[in-house]
Amino acid sequence: MTGFYKRVSYCVCALLLLIATAAAHADSGKEIFDKQCAGCHTIGGGDTGGPDLNGVAVKRKHEWLESVIMEPDKLTANKDPIQLELVKKYGYEMPNLGIGHDDALKIIDYLAEAGGTGGAAAPKASLSTDEHAEIVATPELIAQGRALFTGEKRFANGGAPCAACHSLGGYGIEGGNLSIADLGKSYRKMGETGFRGALKSLKFPVMKKAYADRPLTSDEITALAALCKDASERKAGGSSVAFPLAGVGLFALLMVGLTLYKRRIG
């Protein structure tokens, strides 16, 4: 029996060692934030695709933060006033990322430590040199973005073209059956940093499934952002051109009608 108990004790020790090792290698709150949240949020870097989270651990109740991290869709369904205000401001609901309770607590602890007490804010998520620079929407870059958007050129990692689901009003491109959103409008709401972050993380439910293991490359993100930036500016300025042209057309039509009328009665 002594040998049996020794074997059992060895097994228990080995199991405890495995558990301790797994716990030591578990993602920290910062690591989870960087993976799941940093695409749309900063801590002290300003609003982007979503609100700046500096100080949020003080502004919001702990229970509300747990809910918005784990099940933002339920907050919307329950007409939570804070959630509805955020959806109205940013134009979309934060996606349900499937974050569990333990990871949500880690994120909240990180938010409290990094920027929760009015101290020094955590640095904005690191960006490459290209992501820091404002996009210059050159004709070449816009053409690349349009080819990727419509599917004329395939994404390097095999993801579906944007036009399968999205429209682009500034260019008259109608999306597929899902037609989730006009990406020119999305660009205007999110700004360049937020839009880049959304394309980099692809966390929205349909996109998450469609682009699983098929991330966009940095060059593809830049080209699409340039296209949507240009589309947003075209959309914004379109109404100022459309009305005068319509007026000229109507005036010409009236003149033709008047000429024909005079000939008839003459």
Name the descriptors.
0% strand, Cytochrome Bc1 Complex, Chain D, domain 2, 62% helix, mainly alpha, single chain, 2 domains, 266 residues, 12 helices
Task: Summarize the biggest pleated sheet.
Answer: none
Assign a percent range to the helix content.
55-70%
Q: Which structural class best describes the helix and strand composition? A: mainly alpha
CATH topology of the largest domain: Cytochrome Bc1 Complex, Chain D, domain 2
Number of strands: 0
Instruction: Tell me the CATH superfamily of the largest domain.
Output: Cytochrome c-like domain
Structure described in brief:
By secondary structure, the protein is mostly helical. The protein has helices at 2-24, 29-36, 56-59, 62-70, 72-77, 81-90, 101-115, 129-132, 139-150, 183-201, 205-210, 218-265.
Secondary-structure topology with pairs:
Layout: H1 2-24, H2 29-36, H3 56-59, H4 62-70, H5 72-77, H6 81-90, H7 101-115, H8 129-132, H9 139-150, H10 183-201, H11 205-210, H12 218-265
Helix pairs in contact: 2-7, 4-7, 9-12, 10-12
Could you explain the architecture of this structure?
The protein is 62% helix and 0% strand. The protein is mostly helical and 266 residues long. The chain is globular, with a radius of gyration of 26 Å.
